[in-house]
Amino acid sequence: MKTDILTQANITGDERGQAMLEFAGSIIIFLMLYLFFITIGLRIADYSAVQKVARDGGRQAAITGDINKGLEKARQTAWMWKLDPGKTNIYFYSENYGQRNFITCEVKYISSPISIF
């Protein structure tokens, strides 16, 4: 009879490592989710900054009619939004349709997974 009580105590009473194992499994999942959302947030910030660079550069080029001034303004805006100049490519296209001159600003940015590094 004593052996049954000891066996039952050994089976149900030895749960010291269970909480640590559950914590280790859940913290890995939460850490991965946390890093995923941080990365997505940084990508959205880069996407927004690229749009602002293209808008400001295109606006300046359209107002002045000079692509070089638009390029200078786009580079200033990229610097202001902390985009890496080595990863930022800014292109301007000018097309004439009759008496109208259309200027297009295209910005390409190579974003790293964690862009603050």
TrEMBL record:
Annotated protein name in UniProt: TadE-like protein
Native source organism of the sequence: Desulforamulus putei DSM 12395
Could you tell me which Pfam families the record lists for this protein? TadE
This protein's UniProt keywords: Membrane, Transmembrane, Transmembrane helix
Query: What stretches pass through the bilayer?
Result: 23-45
**Domain TadE-like as annotated: residue spans:** 17-59
Query: Which top-rank group of organisms is this from?
Result: Bacteria
